[in-house]
Amino acid sequence: MIQQVTRGIKISVETHFEGMFYKNYRLHFAFGYQITIENQSNDWVQLKSRFWKIKDALNDTETVSGEGVIGKKPVLKPGERHTYQSGCLLTGPFGAMSGHYNMINFTSTRNFKVKIPSFKLSAPYALN
């Protein structure tokens, strides 16, 4: 498990390989990940949006951004956590993801970024 704390918000990431399949005559590698966002600060916060950089084995980079996570903009009181699952497709057996969440602190009314630690995606058979 990969973890990082930014401004009292702890991000934990677990990944897993889901399999391979062909789409449009091209082999794809499916990966899943589970992220837990834990509010270790003394303030109420809300996740507003996300930004991802997804790199594949050939160093091709895709960026993804949007509101919330899986259709939600969770509000976290001190000590609360929010867990969600998502996934991505790569054209190779290796890759990595990193990014950040844009959040708001309700006490200070300030927006801030929470870093999502870089994590690797790898098909188990490809590890040596």
How would you sum up this structure, described in words?
Residues 3-128 form the ApaG domain. This is Co2+/Mg2+ efflux protein ApaG. It is built from no helices and nine strands. It has strands at residues 2-6, 9-23, 26-39, 45-56, 61-67, 75-76, 81-90, 94-105, 110-122. Strands 4, 5, 6, 8 and 9 form a five-stranded antiparallel sheet that branches. A four-stranded antiparallel sheet has the order 1-2-3-7, with no helix packed on it.
Layout of helices and strands:
Blueprint: E1 2-6, E2 9-23, E3 26-39, E4 45-56, E5 61-67, E6 75-76, E7 81-90, E8 94-105, E9 110-122
Antiparallel strand pairs: 1-2, 2-3, 3-7, 4-5, 4-6, 4-8, 8-9
Quickly count the helices: 0
Secondary-structure element order, as H and E?
Answer: EEEEEEEEE
Please state the overall shape, judged from the principal axes of the Cα atoms: elongated
The biggest beta sheet is recorded as: 5 strands, antiparallel
User: How many domains make up the 3D coordinates?
Assistant: 1
Beta-strand percent range: over 45%
Provide the CATH top-level class: Mainly Beta
- The level of helicity is under 10%
Question: In the CATH scheme, what's the topology name?
Answer: Immunoglobulin-like
Low-confidence stretches: none
Mean pLDDT: 94
* Strand tally: 9
| CA radius of gyration | 16 Å
CATH superfamily: ApaG domain
**From the coordinates shown, what is the CATH architecture?**
Sandwich
Main features:
128 residues; mainly beta; Immunoglobulin-like; four-stranded antiparallel β-sheet; 0% helix; 70% strand; ApaG_domain; ApaG_sf; Co2+/Mg2+ efflux protein ApaG
